[in-house]
Write a structure and sequence with these properties.
Blueprint: H1 3-9, E1 14-21, E2 40-43, E3 48-51, E4 59-60, E5 71-77, E6 84-90, E7 97-99, E8 102-104, E9 109-112, E10 115-120, E11 123-130, E12 137-144, H2 149-153, H3 170-173, E13 174-175, E14 178-179
Parallel strand pairs: 1-12, 3-4
Antiparallel strand pairs: 1-11, 2-12, 3-5, 5-6, 6-9, 7-8, 7-10, 10-11, 13-14
Length: 194
């Protein structure tokens, strides 16, 4: 059998892309234990576990602030669908996992939609799926980001200091953290001083 006919019969695997970011990733080798930029093939019945403990997790982060078992991603099939779907579960008893803005506590799960931002501690993971034909295997592709995925998505981007109609910054109108007056600070009425 030549290589061309082998390629034609090989199943296209679903690929779970995981883009990783941590503010200290340049100065600390947080991701050096992960197979970065190379697809890693997994059986669909095996959970993808990410955490600090390389004994219990397939993928280990080199960071003592990460739980031994931080999170788990499990492939499954919806009834009547030929495609793999994925669920994410928080495995940490101490650290909450944010999945697309929803908070997951210990052992709580959420479905991973086509593209979702997951956060725990100072880590951000942008996870998205590239569908495939295989029902019993999938690939995981870890890549690092130079900027936080939340910034790319426009989530939690800090706003500039609000400016009121008086053109004075908000902080100048406050005294000891509270407004100078209980009256509304904005008004369409003209004030006449006598």
């Amino acid at each position: 059998m030549n290589n061309n006919s082998k390629l034609e019969t090989e199943e296209l695997l679903t690929c779970l892309h995981i883009h990783l970011f941590h503010p200290n990733q340049v100065s600390h080798p947080l991701f050096h234990n992960l197979p970065l930029n190379q697809p890693y093939r997994m059986d669909a019945e095996d959970p993808l576990r990410l955490g600090r403990d390389g004994q219990t997790c397939i993928f280990a982060l080199n960071d003592t602030s990460v739980s031994r078992k931080q999170l788990s991603v499990q492939a499954y099939k919806k009834a009547g669908s030929p495609f793999l779907s994925f669920m994410i579960q928080n495995m940490s008893q101490k650290v909450k996992l944010l999945v697309g803005g929803s908070e997951l506590r210990y052992l709580e799960r959420a479905e991973l939609h086509d593209k979702v931002l997951c956060r725990f501690g100072r880590y951000e993971l942008l996870i998205w799926q590239e569908p495939g034909d295989s029902e019993n295997k999938f690939e995981v592709l870890f890549e690092t980001c130079n900027a936080p995925p939340s910034q790319e998505l426009g989530i939690d981007v800090p706003c500039r200091t609000p400016v009121m109609d008086t053109l004075m910054p908000w902080r100048n109108i406050l005294e000891n953290g509270s407004p100078l007056s209980q009256e509304p600070l904005e008004s369409d009425e003209t004030v006449v001083l006598v």
